[in-house]
Specification:
Blueprint (H helix, E strand, L loop, with lengths): L9 H31 L6 E8 L2 E8 L2 E9 H22 L7 H4 L29
Antiparallel strand pairs: 1-2, 2-3
Helix pairs in contact: 1-2
């Protein structure tokens, strides 16, 4: 399903976070910014833009010719969840999909790979590599 996450490096994860935040800002702020730009291009005193922060709620209102044309509100809880929760979930998914680190052979109780016997291992009986060619009596 999400096996592509197992190939991601930390740079891919950070890039995905930044792309998400840019997309989130574009989707959520574009209507408000466009309403503010439209209101500021009207003749003097024809539009008003107000922003307030009260009881952890941010409100932005754009009025043109005395009528509200755009109103946006968001609580700090909503903002923090939109900004933080999806990247956190992506990070948890990325961590769960990463390949596990393999323990070193010494941690598994296996002999080292270099071929030398461990000092605590009992010596093995080995046959001699030199043989006598002399006849046996």
């Amino acid at each position: 399903m999400m096996s592509f996450l197992s190939r991601w490096r930390p740079a891919h994860l950070i890039t995905a976070w930044v792309a998400y935040w840019v997309g989130l800002a574009a989707v959520t702020l574009t209507p408000t910014v466009m309403a503010i730009v439209h209101g500021t291009r009207l003749p003097k005193d024809a539009a008003a833009v107000s922003a307030s922060f009260s009881n952890t709620v941010l409100s932005i209102t754009v009025s043109e010719f005395g009528k509200v044309t755009h109103a946006a509100t968001a609580s700090m809880l909503q903002v923090s969840l939109w900004v933080g929760l999806p990247p956190l979930l992506l990070y948890v998914a990325w961590l769960s999909m990463r390949p596990r680190a393999r323990p070193a052979p010494a941690q598994l109780g296996e002999p080292p790979l270099d071929g030398f016997a461990r000092p605590d291992a009992a010596p093995r009986a080995s046959s001699s590599s030199t043989h006598s060619r002399a006849p046996h009596a």
